[in-house]
Amino acid sequence: MEALHVPQAMADFIGWYDTQAMQLHPVERAARVHGEFVKIHPFVDGNGWTSRLLMNLELMKAGFPAAVLSVQRRLEYYEALDRAHCHDDYAPFLTLIAAVVVESFDPYWWALGVKA
């Protein structure tokens, strides 16, 4: 995105978050926060890191563990994110993030001695 459009895009993003985001399931909200923020690309560097931090903040605020995307899922992640941005089709990205969130519970189940 051109730098000239970033302030309005960020204002629109915050407006969406304040009015519509809370109506979504927390996992979908977290994924969309990540996807829309990184799409705006407001910083010269660190947009991916920041967007994943925002995603995990949303997850943790809702009582979910942080979602950590493994190296093995990196290509799937980039392809799903590209599909969301280029075709406005968030389904593959939401499916991926939901699966990663489910996997993020594994250390807790192990610590509790629960077989998932």
Outline:
The chain has 116 residues and is mainly α. The chain has one domain: Fido-like domain (Fic-like fold). The protein is built from six helices and no strands.
Give a written overview of the molecule.
It comes from Thiothrix fructosivorans. This protein has six helices and no strands. It is an all-alpha fold and 116 residues long. The chain has a single domain (3-112), classed as Orthogonal Bundle (Fic-like fold). The mean pLDDT is 95.
Net shape: globular
* CATH domain class: Mainly Alpha
CATH architecture: Orthogonal Bundle
Count of helical regions: 6
Number of domains: 1
- Tell me the number of strands: 0
Low-confidence runs of at least 5 consecutive residues: none
Mean pLDDT: 95
Structural class: mainly alpha
Indicate the proportion of strand residues: under 5%
Main sheet characteristics: none
Topology, element by element:
Elements: H1 6-19, H2 26-40, H3 47-61, H4 74-87, H5 91-104, H6 106-112
List key phrases describing it.
116 residues; globular; mainly alpha; 68% helix; Fic-like fold
